[in-house]
Design goal:
It comes from Ilex paraguariensis. The chain is an all-alpha fold. It has helices spanning about 10-20, 35-45, 60-65, 65-85, 90-105, 110-120, 130-145, 150-160, 165-185, 195-205, 205-210, 215-225, 230-240. It contains 13 helices and no strands. The termini are far apart.
Length: about 240
């Protein structure tokens, strides 16, 4: 994505993407343009609007003004995909991913609660599993960003209990492990609370983990990442106190 000298997306680039979305028309084309739309939506997530109020230029402010229109377009595509699902839910997945990226970049301007409310309905068990998992991963990212690794892991355990597909369980496990890795790099001295550790250990020995060997592998990896943040003695005390 194009960047200006201040490393932000120029107003013209933001407006160009908005115009492409606004005037996209596939009528008369026998072929679907869903992959094009999905790529276009994902490009919105790569835009840089800037966050620091004191450093905002007139151009940056102009770009932010387009944000509302971009979000409305994404929401419209998201709702359209619910009515007429795209191949493997690729459009809805791109919309959810982009909404999450924008929310995390611009949490100063966009209330995370509203984004969560928008994404949460896509966790419905009747939703295509690919979309359902993407929604769960997005909500885990938002939880991690707003409340930290403990809250994200507890939410992961909750979502895992609600997920019936083996593939979905594995994908959630992979994502939770990545969050653990990110958390350990961002704040290597932080503690995982005992309740969360016990919940993960119980999950490791649960029938779900027994029946899904790949999930069990990632749960074990998560515990290894967490254990690496303490000495063995501290880890043992946290678990068994």
């Amino acid at each position: 994505m194009i960047r200006a000298a201040d490393k932000k997306s120029p107003r013209e680039a933001v407006e160009f993407v908005l115009q492409l979305l606004k005037y996209n028309d596939n009528n008369g084309n026998p072929h679907s343009d869903v992959f094009w739309l999905a790529a276009l939506v994902q490009s919105i997530g790569e835009l840089e609007f800037g966050q620091q109020v004191a450093q905002r230029s007139v151009q940056t402010l102009s770009s932010i003004l387009f944000l509302s229109s971009l979000l409305k377009r994404i929401d419209r595509l998201l709702q359209f995909d619910r009515l007429m699902p795209s191949y493997n839910g690729i459009l809805a997945i791109s919309c959810i991913r982009t909404l999450t990226q924008i929310a995390l970049k611009l949490s100063e301007f966009i209330p995370l609660d509203r984004v969560i409310q928008l994404i949460k309905p896509f966790q419905n068990t009747k939703t295509m599993w690919q979309i359902r998992i993407e929604a769960s991963r997005a909500l885990l990212d938002l939880e991690f960003h707003s409340k930290g690794i403990d809250a994200a892991l507890m939410l992961f355990i909750k979502y895992l209990g609600e997920e019936s597909s083996l593939r979905g369980q594995v994908k959630l496990g992979v994502h939770a492990m990545r969050l653990c890795q990110i958390g350990s790099k961002l704040d290597p001295g932080s503690d995982i609370n005992g309740e969360c550790l016990v919940a993960l250990l119980r999950l490791l020995e649960s029938p779900m983990a027994f029946n899904n060997v790949i999930l069990r592998h990632y749960l074990f990896c998560m515990l290894q990442v967490i254990a690496g943040r303490y000495s063995f003695f501290q880890f043992s005390q946290s678990v068994y106190r």
